[in-house]
Specification:
Layout (H helix, E strand, L loop, with lengths): L1 H6 L5 E5 L2 E6 L3 H8 L3 H7 L38 H6 L10 H4 L5 H4 L4 E7 L2 H10 L1 H6 L5 H19 L6 H7 L4 E7 L5 E8 L4 H17 L3 E3 L9 E7 L7 E9 L2 E5 L2 H12 L14 H10 L8 E5 L1 H15 L9 H7 L7 E10 L2 E10 L8 H9 L22 E6 L2 H7 L1 H8 L3 H11 L4 H7 L3 E8 L8 E8 L7 H12 L2 E5 L2 E6 L10 E2 L16 H6 L9 E5 L3 E5 L2 H9 L10 H10 L8 E8 H13 L9 H9 L21 H5 L5 E9 L2 E9 L5 H12 L1
Parallel strand pairs: 2-18
Antiparallel strand pairs: 1-2, 3-4, 3-10, 4-5, 5-9, 6-7, 7-8, 8-9, 10-11, 11-12, 12-23, 13-14, 13-21, 14-15, 15-20, 16-17, 17-19, 19-20, 21-22, 22-23
Helix pairs in contact: 3-14, 16-17
Length: 734
């Protein structure tokens, strides 16, 4: 509905071009999606390849602090263990039980070695343990089944090849790391300005130095085969460093630097000389906390870690991102690769100008096999609430007001039967979002866009403000699967409760019909509206791709061919809409819409044993009075339709949400349908008997806190399979 609101912002302005008057239709769907899914900004840049890394030539420069020493502070109190002697020496926050094994073993962790200007950090504290623990999970055991192993191996090779291609610019592949690591593996991005940034890989090889040195010799041979030139380099603090001048893939006539070394049991590979020096200095001078700022002491990183870690659970995988800083890092890397300078869009600046820099950082961890929790994960989005004083930041906070004012339980409603695959319910103050979004819309669409849109809607008898005020600040999404499986088996519906106002169901339904320009029909006594995806005629409409900037930045015409290639992502092939008992129901097929509007199920999802298991599993980690989002799913049912379409080689034609998103994201440049790239015809046809038993339950909740949002989630084994899985787990342990 939110996306469609943006899509309806049309006919707002006319411009005179050399070709004469032409209506410029501004599509704001992408912008609205960015608002509703802020974290997608991060996902969009995580795909930047490391092959784009090139650093200006620096030789024997003095190490510098990218940032001033950070204060150790935390906005939240948590249970801790006493500080170790080494932690006291460098001013670290107390380590949680089982969290800092490296510190307890007198081995520093990567967050102690990296500078405070680190914008992205991924760490596997014990890589061998991670592999062992994964093999004990249902998914790990499923991947070892003889019927699935060929497919899993093929997918693993594809992923390894992709990651190896990215890591080529640092000279190290996944297999290289796997053969030498003894402890932590870390990859990080550091940014302290366009002239000083880099990617660094840290691998703890303590106790396996012979293999690590052998790896460096192997890399030297490979580098020479690639045409790289080894140059002399002065040791750093008595640490020998190998420097390579590597030809760029896109432009072999130019080269970039990469550095490799082993220092006190750490294998280091980076493309930035300054980063290399600073890491070595931290390894050599762990007691000199004043001289070097560290990631572990950076206020945002420390705040997130203090919130997200659990005393009794040891992370198997950890991560941290400072969103705006990482975008700047990705842009700087991209700029170095470009032969001709390309001007970036202004999306990041616009979001920052509109207060989205209130989001200071995001981080979390994943842990496996903790008692009944097959997988447990936590993520915290830190907003530094005490710094939200600027009016722009207050507006941004108003857009994302998810507080559960009425203390709703957010459990499945009475109309949700036990045969549904999943249930998601979220509280969202839509009125607050509507009141605060105008400056943001205008910053992307041009001054006056928002009011012009509302006026245009009013001219078509649509009062958007009144419609928004009718919503009761809650959104529910449910899914199910229709059998037999075909391209349209996935059923999805969104339900928005309406307030008990004077507006009748019939009156609100008419507003919805006008908004979507739909047709009201009656089937089985159900009045409903059918909306097909809007077909865009490129001769009639000129769409400004938001990537090219708003009107104030781009006054050039877009050709019909270019317009035809810019399409919205429609999660629903069709929309079937009705208003019943103060509920707006939007489904992707008629039968599901009818079921939600008329059924009074005797067996409800909220009363099921599966739902209760997830509730009990998460209860020790959640303050339920703060919960503003709650999700539950049966993983096997969620995956069944996509699995079967993949096995048949028909996923490209499926109308599941996943397939439609993939088709849009992976479309060819000439907008032709994508071709199937994965041969999965040998997957077992008996999904229920072979695959489903290993896929259990999942659920997560989001708590709205004073300084951000906390997500806690878990995966549980399927109860009917628990005994079998436990037997196999014990065999794997032996």
């Amino acid at each position: 509905f939110v996306v469609s609101c943006a899509n309806r912002t049309v006919k707002t302005t006319s411009k005179i071009t050399k070709k004469g008057p032409r209506v410029k239709i501004i599509r704001l769907a992408t912008v609205t999606l960015a608002l509703s899914l802020t974290f997608a900004t991060l996902d969009s840049v995580m795909g930047q390849k490391l092959e784009k890394i090139e650093e200006p030539k620096l030789e024997n420069v003095q190490a510098t602090d990218e940032t001033s020493p950070a204060e150790t502070s935390s906005p939240a109190e948590s249970k801790t263990t006493p500080k170790s002697e080494k932690e006291e020496a460098i001013g670290l926050p107390p380590a949680k039980s089982g969290i800092s094994e490296q510190v307890k073993n007198n081995r520093p962790s990567s967050d102690m070695l990296l500078p405070a200007s680190t914008k992205a950090w991924v760490s596997i504290p014990d890589s061998r343990k991670l592999v062992d623990e994964f093999k004990l999970t249902g998914l790990g055991q499923l991947s070892e089944l003889p019927d699935l192993k060929p497919f899993v191996d093929s997918m693993t090779d594809k992923v390894r090849s992709m990651l190896d291609e990215q890591n080529f610019r640092l000279g190290i592949t996944l297999d290289d790391i796997r053969n030498v690591r003894t402890g932590e593996i870390c990859i990080a991005g550091v940014f302290s300005g366009k002239a000083s940034h880099g990617i660094v890989i840290l691998v703890d090889v303590d106790g396996n130095l012979d293999a690590a040195n052998g790896l460096l010799n192997k890399l030297a041979s490979e580098m020479e085969d690639l045409g790289a030139i080894q140059e002399p380099f002065t040791p750093i603090m008595e640490t020998e460093v190998t420097k390579w001048r590597v030809p760029r893939i896109k432009n072999p006539n130019t080269r970039f630097d990469t550095f490799q070394t082993i220092c006190d049991g750490w294998l280091i590979a980076t493309d930035n000389q300054t980063v290399l020096r600073d890491v070595i200095m931290r390894i050599k001078n762990l007691g000199d906390n004043e001289a070097l700022s560290r990631l572990i002491n950076e206020p945002t990183f420390a705040a997130i870690r203090s919130q997200v870690l659990v005393e009794t659970i040891r992370p198997d995988f950890q991560w941290f991102v400072e969103p705006f800083g990482y975008v700047e890092l990705a842009q700087a890397i991209s700029d170095q690769e470009e032969i001709l300078h390309r001007q970036h869009d202004k999306h990041v600046e616009r979001l920052r100008d509109n207060g989205f820099d209130m989001l200071r950082g995001i981080g979390g961890f994943v842990s496996m096999n903790n008692d009944d929790l097959e997988i447990f994960y936590r993520t915290f989005a830190y907003t530094a609430a005490d710094q939200i004083q600027k009016q722009t930041r207050k507006r941004a906070a108003g857009i994302f007001d998810f507080r559960n004012y009425d203390k709703r339980p957010l459990t499945p409603e009475a109309f949700v039967s036990d045969d549904f695959n999943s249930h998601l319910s979220i509280t969202w103050n839509m009125t607050s979002a509507f009141e605060n979004i105008e400056p943001l819309v205008d910053s992307f669409g041009g001054e006056g866009t928002y009011q012009a849109t509302l006026k245009n809607l009013r001219n078509n008898d649509i009062d958007l403000s009144s419609m928004i005020q009718n919503f009761d600040n809650q959104i529910t999404l449910v899914t199910s699967t229709r059998h037999p499986i075909d391209e349209r088996s996935e059923e999805i519906a969104i339900v928005l409760p309406l307030k008990g106002t004077e507006t009748t169901d019939e009156q609100f339904a008419e507003q919805v019909r006008l908004f979507w320009s739909g047709e009201t029909i009656v089937v089985d006594g159900i009045n409903h509206i059918v909306i097909a995806p809007e077909e865009v005629d490129p001769e009639d409409e000129i769409i400004l791709d938001p990537r090219f900037g708003g009107l104030e930045d781009n006054e050039v015409d877009v050709t019909a061919d270019e317009a035809a290639q810019v399409k919205d992502i429609h999660i629903f092939e069709k929309k079937f809409i009705t208003v019943s008992e103060k509920r707006l129901i939007i489904a992707n097929n008629f039968e599901l819409m009818k079921k939600l509007a008329t059924d009074k199920p005797n067996v409800k999802l909220v009363d099921s044993e599966d739902y209760d298991r997830i509730t009990q599993a998460l209860s020790p980690f959640v303050k339920w009075e703060q919960v503003s989002t709650r999700q539950f799913s049966r993983i096997d049912r969620q995956l069944e339709a996509n699995y079967e379409m993949l096995r048949q080689g028909n996923l490209v034609n499926a109308q599941t949400a996943l397939a439609r998103i993939l088709n849009r994201a992976l479309a060819t440049e000439d907008n032709k349908p994508r071709q199937a790239e994965i041969d999965a015809h040998e997957l077992p046809s008996d999904f229920a008997g072979v695959v489903a038993p290993y896929l259990g339950l999942s659920g997560w909740v989001m708590e709205t806190q004073a300084d951000g949002w906390m997500i806690s989630g878990c995966i549980l084994k399927k109860k009917a399979k628990t005994e079998i899985v436990e037997i196999q787990s014990e065999e794997a342990r032996r």
